[in-house]
Each structure stands twice: as C-alpha cells, then as structure tokens.
Predict the 3D structure of the following.
Amino acid sequence: MADGEEKKHHFLHRNKDKEEAPKDPEKDLKKHKHRENLGKATAIAAGAYALHEKHKAKKDPENASRHKVAQEIATTVAVGAGGLVFHEHHKKKEAKKELKEQGKH
C-alpha cells in the first residue's frame, strides 16, 4: 500500500481500532429483561401452536403428515425460545450484578 492510503476492510469485519463506548448497566438490564419476556411469550405461543397441530393431526387423518411436520417445527421453535430465555436470564443477572457493583441498584 502506498503512503496515506487506508486499508480497505470487508463490510462484515468490525473496525477494532475504535474504542467502544462504556456500557450502561441499567440499559443492559432493561434490554435483557425485555428479551427474556419476549422469549417466554414466544415459547408459550409456539408450544400452544404445537398442541393445536397435534390435535389437528388426530382430527384430520388425510393431512396428518402435514400437521405433524408443523407440530415438529413449532416444538423446535418453542425449545429454541426456551434456550433464549435461559440465556437472557443469565445476561440479566450479570447486568444486575454490574449495577450492584456500581452501587446504582
């Protein structure tokens, strides 16, 4: 590279030279609490839909395979949402701990 030219980066790579702004633990706590609640709602809705599709598979034997596929997908979404809830709960606990260390909570 010639003098004075900047190195070009791929658009997915972050610029690591920039300093990251300090995190606000109160915002983190609120964000993780909100995401945890959304995950809970998603898990409940997906679980309810899986039960609905299970019922439809019994009632509609002609299209039972289609309903079973939809049931499996909904079950997978419910399990994934449960994992997200677990993850966000621990992130929320970390944010609470950070707040306590700063003496704000």
